[in-house]
Design a protein that fits this description.
The chain has about 400 residues and is an alpha/beta fold. It has two domains: about 150 residues, Aspartate Aminotransferase, domain 1 (Alpha-Beta Complex); about 230 residues, 3-Layer(aba) Sandwich (Aspartate Aminotransferase, domain 2). The protein is built from twelve helices and 17 strands. A hairpin with a 2-residue loop joins strand 16 and strand 17. The protein is globular.
């Protein structure tokens, strides 16, 4: 099927909920995708952070195919080996106490919200930050601190408050005696690759400790090595009570995780929460393989951090780039406000897949991307910026 046929069928028969780029993709290998006509695109998006090992990494493909031939699904009424193995690795890598598996980041955040509400039966408020993004379900869209996501869907759930990002005074004004949890992204993704100030994070931790409030870290986009640490909160030297993961964990398969620390590990009991497809054996087999890449004493994380620094050095040398935000391979590029979408469109024409985040060009390349692909992609991006700016 050629590109035009694919696009026509999707436009005719799928809901118009995505502003898609004018490209159909049919195959990929490493950091390169192809359309039906064989045109190649270097991928600096990894499916918005999902394809952590790029397209069709051989070991990942073998793990998933092997499990698909053994057992594709049971239910959470039975034990399975992939769930057990993935759980063990997650806990060893994070030092958390246990994990609940779901299907997405939004589902993971829903689970964290429910756990927080149960933690203190006399408290209900969850404080989040302006410019945050936590999902598109009714609870997580309410938790999201961006008015642009709140249009059309009122009335929203009660019990959420929004503190201004990096504003300590606003934080103290927003937390009340009814607050049971503070949920944050240490680096805000959809909000524009905004990093939280260390002093602000310290105040959040102080409040949580003093008032017995749970600290929830939304690591859906920032976790699994994306920032050069296994979790972005490690950059701040803190340990949350609940951590949510998704995106890159499955390497391309849908999976979400709610990790519970010591204070939160017994909050949810039988019947309190569940997910039909949570801990699906095939998804967990993919996750187990991805997680195995981090069981090397930190070598893989070191490579990610080094590549992130390489990106920043090269990007800051490109005329038209005003600044670079983020950490590791979660990168926001400051350009003139009106130009981000145009640059992404121009890069696509030239064979490079990129993203936007607010007024920035956003890069989320595969964690194992090779330097040759980095250089080729940055050359295309430099040409696109020059053409637009």
């Amino acid at each position: 099927m050629d590109s035009e046929k694919i696009k026509k069928l999707e436009n005719d028969y799928t809901a118009n909920t995505y502003a898609r780029y004018d490209v159909a993709l049919v195959s990929g290998k490493g950091a390169v995708a192809k359309d039906p006509e064989g045109r190649e695109f270097i991928d600096f998006t990894s499916g918005i952070g999902v394809n952590s090992l790029g397209f069709c990494e051989p070991g990942w493909v073998d793990a998933v195919q092997r499990q698909a031939g053994l057992l594709q699904h049971t239910s959470n009424l039975f034990y399975t080996e992939p769930c057990a193995l993935a759980s063990e690795k997650l806990i060893k890598l994070t030092g958390m106490s246990n994990v609940f598996f779901a299907n997405s980041g939004a589902e993971a955040n829903e689970g964290a919200i429910k756990a927080a509400r149960k933690y203190k039966s006399d408290r209900f408020q969850i404080v989040t930050l302006t410019e945050s993004f936590h999902g598109r379900t009714m609870a997580t869209i309410t938790a999201t601190g961006q008015e642009s996501f709140h249009r059309y869907f009122t009335p929203f759930l009660q019990g959420f408050g929004y503190a201004e990002t990096n504003n300590t005074e606003s934080l103290y004004e927003t937390v009340t005696e009814d607050t049971c949890a503070i949920m944050i992204e240490f680096i805000q993704g959809e909000g524009g690759i905004n990093e939280l100030n260390r002093d602000f994070v310290d105040e959040i931790v102080k409040i949580c400790d003093e008032k017995d409030i749970l600290l929830i870290a939304d690591e859906v986009q920032t976790g699994l090595g994306r920032t050069g640490k296994f979790m972005s909160y490690e950059h701040y030297g803190v340990k949350p009570d609940i951590v949510t993961l998704a995106k890159g964990v499955g390497g391309g398969l849908p999976i979400g995780c709610v990790l519970f620390g010591e204070k939160a590990k017994e909050i949810l009991g039988p019947g309190d929460h569940g997910s039909t497809f949570g801990a699906n054996p095939i998804a967990c087999a993919g996750a187990d393989y991805v997680l195995s890449k981090f069981m090397d004493g930190g070598a893989f994380l070191g490579e990610i951090a080094d590549k992130g620094e390489y990106f920043r050095e090269k990007l800051l040398a490109i005329p038209g780039v005003k600044g670079v935000s983020g950490k590791g391979l979660m990168i926001g590029i400051d350009v003139d406000e009106k130009n981000a979408k145009e640059i992404v469109a121009e890069a696509l024409k030239r064979g490079l897949l990129t993203l936007t985040a607010k007024d920035k060009v956003r890069l989320l390349p595969p964690l194992n991307i090779e330097y040759e692909m980095i250089d080729k992609g940055l050359s295309i991006l430099a040409g696109a910026i020059k053409a637009v700016v």
